[in-house]
Amino acid sequence: MRIPFQHSLLVAMIAGATLLQGCSDNNEEPMAEAPATEAPATESQADSTMAEDTNANDATSNSGMTRSSAPEGATATILSPADGATVTSPVTVEFGLEGMDVVPAGTEQEHAGHHHLLIDLDKDSMPAMDFPLPANDNVVHFGKGQTQTELELEPGTHTLQLLLGDHMHVPHQPPVMSEKITITVE
After folding, report:
1. pLDDT at 54 over 60
2. Computed from CA positions of residues 142, 125, 50, 48, in that sequence, does the dihedral angle turn out positive or negative?
3. pTM exceeds 0.85 for this model
4. Cβ neighbours of residue 128 under 8 Å, at least 6 residues apart?
């Protein structure tokens, strides 16, 4: 007897395994969580880092995927470089997270996830918040639970933004996203 969703399930399993494999191929070693010495976010910063979603009271998205919930007040932050900084390549980027834990991809834990760095994305090219995040040059996965990285960037102006993903790389409900920063690479 053939199960109707058998093909869809197989495709979903292969796609999930590919995403997890992509994250595990990152050669960087997991870094210790950044010390909790950063200043707490102001109320307006917290409001702007928690992107509004039309399904704010429903953790099941239009894609049919169940999104992991994020606690109220959870914030992601780019600790360095500072917004407006002029830097040289390679650029060290340090990630901060408050109100949640950083865990490797594939680790299903309440109020936890791993970082994704969005590079040079504008509003029109942002990934969907109700599907696993793609892995490409503009969406870099840190599936081993890393909290910093070294980026090779071409000279010029670049934007950086953090987005936390759950065990399956799907942004939380509501999304935990940092402010977008702009840096200049000499």
Report:
1. no
2. positive
3. no
4. 63
